[in-house]
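Entry:
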Amino acid sequence: MIDIQSFILNYINEFSYIGVFLLTAFIALIPLPEELFLLLAGYFSGKGFAELDKVILAAYLGILTGDNILYYLIRKKHYLHGMYTRVVSTRLKKWKKPMKEHTGKSIFLLRFILGLRFLGPLMAGTLKVRWRTFAFFNFLAVLVFVPFYIFLGYYFNNVSDLIIRDVLIMKYLVLGGLLLVIIVPYLVFLKKGFFKRS
């Protein structure tokens, strides 16, 4: 006889990995901080809501898919090309020369600069960087980026459970502080006109 409850829980569990994939692919297409979602994914993996290795794989594949879609759309001058380039035109001008001179390094490093990771696929597509070059350096960057933030969220959950067992509110305040470390600089970028049209 089939246990309905375990069947439903397994279905929700497997669906959550598809959700992680789709959400990270979507976030890769818009200028939002992926770090926030990855920290939360790691944190909830630590809580036992999902298996860590499957979350990392789903996030990894999702970000790579989103980045490659963005690169393709920009390179083929899809109608989104104009919108994206207007939104980040001042940053495009600043990074155009380094991207031309140090293509691989720029693609790799932009992934790790909060608020600029969106520029990697955008610049590579705009400057018509060969797909193999973009894919290789983006692959290397995401290979480091995704596990780092997911493990950070996962580790925070494990350490916080050991240190703050009885004070549950403190754990969420510290998690909120970690999230603010990512959100506040992003909002500062927005306030300073980082994404405004020139």
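The chain has a mean pLDDT of 77.
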